[in-house]
Specification:
heterodimer, A: about 280 residues, alpha/beta, TIM Barrel, 11 helices, 8 strands, about 15% strand, globular, B: about 425 residues, Rossmann fold, six-stranded mixed sheet, four-stranded antiparallel sheet
């Protein structure tokens, strides 16, 4: 089963950094998102130089790394997870490139191991389509999807090249910049969705979405799903900073997840109806 | 139309977030048209401005005392005499001018030692462009005079608090700004690092160093030097000093890296107490390029260290990594102590106070040909050393670091610094 099937109805795709702030709590947090209605979960494998992330996720990366997260530990984390939801690994290329023993061709060992533990696909923010050949090949070999991020600036030939390589879904970056919760949804989203309309692949919009209302707006504008990271990571950060009980943090995550999923579903009702016959 | 270099062997490439790719394509196009093909007379204007505003050409000077000490003819390429006190203006002025030709409205840059930041701030003021500089908090504390210079030239200086607060974090933060403002803003990267076309473009702007040095050496001495020496952090002065000699197989090229306090690495802490990515780094991907990096076995980037903040970086330019693999460039290391000794030696023997970065290049001469030299490298009859920058910015750090060590050749400062 590919990731596409998760988009049969408007999908809610949450992100958390695996192991934030520690291995055990993080397992409970991810499972709470699944209970809250997640259709796919993006799990961040933290890299020391997360150049596409805003302050919220940068801090999550720091907490997770300080908690001892490594690529191998990440795979153990995925194995330990008790969820019935497709999983996407979001990480930076150097970690994929370095995994495996000396002498092995790079990239393939990471993908092989990811497939073994039940990862369904990848998002790699610092890997544009031009450099993605080796990862695309390994994903094909092991039956995994490779998601690309379409930015508001992605047009023409570049978009075409990306659409030839993408599988699972496209990650539509709602605005220029880095990740982080925002109060409004950018009108760059509608333009991006319009440019993508002709391509037959699910479109999930992320960057800045933090409430059910925003999720509804994005889906009403034509998205097949919403991706939410920083707003959820904020809850984890609050729990870590104030030493809150894990169960309380998990409840808050589950409740925001429900709101976001409901928003996505409601948004679909507001879509303009096709012309009647 | 000329085509820019995308990769150097297996190194280089464009590993950046999608939001930046269109800007990088636009920059590649502008680089090929204006820099490589001199469209609209871009290079003519650049050469005129780097002469009139920058003070080029810089001299090639025989170092009398060092020549005697090492038994070889030592010549100094005096980039410390370029406006701003370092080679950095060659690249900064070139890129700010290019941004103007591209119709960009705003300049951003990262800086480590503050030399690239000050050069960019000067160039932006000169060409009337608003400018913001990102600088790690730790570097701000180490390089206060340069922070003041940037502010006085009218630039905003944004402190970067994440991580260890040095160049690596400043580059990441500048890339984040660029990802947000890419349509109106040009990122003036300060070294031969980052995604293509930056490594080739920065090298081209800096290659004026070796173009002049080659001609000057031929005029003053005749022929080619036996060896060319430059310090290497990211590698912009290194590539600038080597660029016009790489095809001359008889000229030995030495890239002197910061050995820091030791060449070992601490996997547990994620710290490499050196900045010797050419000497001990492994291939990986950082800040847009595949190159040699200081990283742990998982691929997490390690914090580097050097007494000189301008060399304090975990990566290195991809072309240098390639030239080292090809055997064309020999990487060597000089540690903090040797660099400080060399700093004092050049100051006293030649009357030139070098930047701490630059002092590493001179530490190399001493370590192989000095009275206690190990003779591991036999210096040829003539050597050109690039004096990449002057040391005014480093005085406080030098006094503090000298104080921690028992250096034979350092002047005593106690009477002036105690009870101040």
């Amino acid at each position: 089963m590919g990731l596409e099937d998760a988009f049969d109805e408007p999908a809610f795709v949450p992100y958390l950094a695996a192991g934030d702030p520690d291995f055990e709590s993080s397992l409970e947090y991810v499972e709470a998102l699944a209970r809250g209605g997640a259709d796919i979960i993006e799990l961040g494998l933290p890299f020391s130089e997360p150049i596409a992330e805003g302050p919220t996720i940068q801090q999550a990366v720091v907490r997770s790394l300080e908690g001892g997260m490594t690529p191998e530990r990440f795979f153990e984390f995925v194995e330990a997870l008790d969820v019935d939801v497709p999983l996407v690994c979001m990480t930076y290329y150097n970690l994929i490139y370095q995994y495996g023993s000396e002498g092995e061709p790079p990239v393939r060992p990471f993908v092989e191991r990811a497939a073994e533990v039940g990862i369904d696909g990848f998002v790699v923010p610092d890997l544009p389509a031009e450099e993605a050949g080796p990862l695309r090949d390994a994903c094909d070999e092991f039956g995994l999807d490779l998601v690309f991020i379409v930015a508001p600036t992605t047009r023409g030939e570049r978009l075409q090249r990306m659409m030839e390589q993408v599988s699972g879904y496209v990650y539509v970056q709602a605005r220029l910049g880095v990740t982080g919760a925002r109060a409004d949804v950018s009108n760059q989203t509608e333009e991006s969705l319009a440019r993508l309309a002709e391509y037959d692949v699910p479109k999930a919009v992320g960057f800045g979405i933090s409430s059910g209302e925003q999720a509804a707006d994005v889906v009403a504008a034509g998205a097949d799903g919403v991706i939410v990271g920083s707003a959820l990571v904020d809850i984890v950060a609050d729990g870590a900073e104030n030493d809150l009980p894990t169960a309380e943090v998990a409840d808050r995550l589950e409740s925001l997840a429900r709101e976001l999923k409901q928003g996505a579903v409601d948004g679909a009702q507001r879509r303009p109806r096709p012309e009647g016959t | 139309m000329s085509e820019s270099q995308h990769t150097f062997g297996d190194y280089g490439g464009q590993y950046v977030p999608e939001a930046l790719m269109p800007a990088i394509e636009e920059l590649t196009d502008a680089y090929e048209r204006y820099v490589l093909d001199n469209e609209e007379g871009f290079m003519d204007e650049f050469r005129q401005r780097i002469r009139d505003f920058g003070g080029r050409p810089t001299p090639l000077q025989r170092a009398d005392q060092l020549s005697e000490r090492y038994g070889t003819e030592v010549y100094l390429k005096r980039e410390d005499l370029l406006h701003g006190g370092a080679h950095k203006l060659n690249n900064a002025l070139g890129q700010v001018l290019l941004a103007k030709y591209m119709g960009k409205e705003r300049i951003i840059a990262e800086t480590g030692a503050g030399q690239h930041g000050t050069a960019t701030a000067m160039a932006a003021a000169h060409l009337d462009m608003p400018c913001e500089i990102y600088m790690g908090r730790r570097d701000i504390n180490r390089q206060r005079p340069n922070v003041f210079r940037m502010r006085i030239n009218g630039a905003e200086v944004n402190p970067v608090d994440i991580g260890r607060g040095t160049l690596k974090e400043a580059i990441s933060e500048t890339m984040r700004d660029w990802a947000t403002t890419v349509e109106t803003t040009h990122y003036v990267i300060g070294s031969v690092v980052g995604p293509a076309p930056f490594p080739a473009m920065v090298r081209d702007f800096q290659s004026v160093i070796s173009k002049e040095a080659r001609r000057q050496f031929d005029e003053q001495v005749g022929g080619l030097p036996g060896a060319v020496v430059a310090c290497a952090g990211g590698g912009s002065n290194t590539m600038g000093t080597f660029a016009n000699f790489t095809d001359d197989e008889d000229v030995d090229l030495y890239a002197v890296e910061a050995g820091g306090s030791t060449l070992s690495v601490d996997e547990e802490e994620g710290v490499a107490p050196n900045s010797a990515s050419l000497s001990i780094g492994e291939e990986g991907v950082l800040h847009g390029a595949r190159t040699k990096l200081l990283q742990d076995s998982h691929g997490q980037i390690m914090e580097s260290h050097s007494v000189s903040s301008g060399l304090d970086y975990s990566g290195v330019g991809p072309e240098l990594a390639y030239l080292v693999d090809e055997g064309r460039v020999t990487p060597v290391t000089v540690d903090d102590d040797e660099a400080l000794e060399a700093f004092h030696r050049l100051s006293q023997d030649e009357g030139i106070i070098p930047a701490l970065e630059t002092a590493h290049a001179f530490g190399f001469l001493e370590s192989v040909a000095g009275p206690d030299g190990d003779g591991s490298v036999e210096l040829p009859e003539t050597v050109v050393v690039n004096v990449s920058g002057r040391g005014d910015k480093d005085l406080e750090a030098v006094i503090e670091e000298t104080d921690k060590r028992d250096l034979d050749n350092a002047p005593t400062m106690e009477v002036f610094t105690d009870g101040a």
